[in-house]
Write a structure and sequence with these properties.
Largest sheet: none
Helix content: 55-70%
Strand content: under 5%
Structural class: mainly alpha
Number of strands: 0
Oligomer: single chain
């Protein structure tokens, strides 16, 4: 068994010996919560207490952390896309028409009124890779019905773990690969992840429709004024 010193020296670059030493350690980093980027703060402030708790401490956050860590090493860096997306979702979340807030008249369903940005906030507070896999979830939700999208996620997770397991057979590898290769994501959690992304997509579609109607109205006014 590798000594503690050897394990410490392997933090930057894993070895087969360090892998064996770490195999029995529970590398549970899924509940780590990070501060969301500034662009997403408007969304966070608009979420209901129940949804924000689920996004920061519940199963959706765990899924975001796990999927982000699973794919992070091979995802491209897209800071401009992440920033633009954050600004847009915060703008939608702060719009009372697109995202109404529940009141006393809504009774026990008050926390469920309005846009469901749970998976976005979970990704925003989960670090590297999480926002990219959220955007992938939105793409799959647009193309496939729920059950099919969930099955695709299950296949992606299984295939990715196989890739990581193969990398562990090499002489050197990032130590994060050891942790990522052990990740398990239940199908129920993948279905929940897909459902939240599906809800996000619906609100974004409504937002685009409202924006399109606004442009049409402006063009009509412009045409009417020019004809006077």
């Amino acid at each position: 068994m590798a000594s503690i010193g050897k394990i410490a020296l392997s933090l930057a670059s894993g070895t087969q010996e360090a892998t064996l030493a770490l195999a029995n350690i529970n590398l549970d980093f899924s509940m780590v919560k990070l501060t969301a980027p500034t662009e997403y703060q408007g969304l966070g402030a608009s979420l209901s207490h129940k949804r924000k708790t689920q996004a920061e401490d519940g199963s959706t956050h765990v899924t975001a952390r796990k999927l982000g860590a699973l794919f992070a090493d091979d995802l491209p860096s897209t800071p401009n896309l992440a920033r633009a997306y954050g600004l847009r979702v915060s703008e939608i979340a702060e719009n009372p028409i697109l995202n109404p807030h529940g009141g006393k008249s809504d009774g026990p369903l008050a926390d469920l009124v309005g846009a469901d940005g749970t998976s976005i906030w979970a990704a925003a507070t989960s670090g590297k890779g999480a926002m990219a896999v959220h955007l992938l979830a939105c793409m799959l939700a647009r193309i496939w019905p729920g059950p099919e999208a969930t099955s695709i996620w299950a296949e992606l997770v299984a295939s990715r773990k196989e890739v990581l397991q193969n990398r562990l057979q090499e002489s050197e590898f990032p130590i994060t690969t050891v942790a990522a290769a052990q990740i398990e994501v239940a199908r129920d959690n993948l279905a929940e992840w897909d459902a939240s992304a599906r809800s996000v997509r619906s609100v974004q579609d409504l937002s685009q429709y409202s924006y399109f109607r606004k442009i049409v109205r402006q063009q009509r006014r412009s045409v009417s004024n020019s004809s006077l």
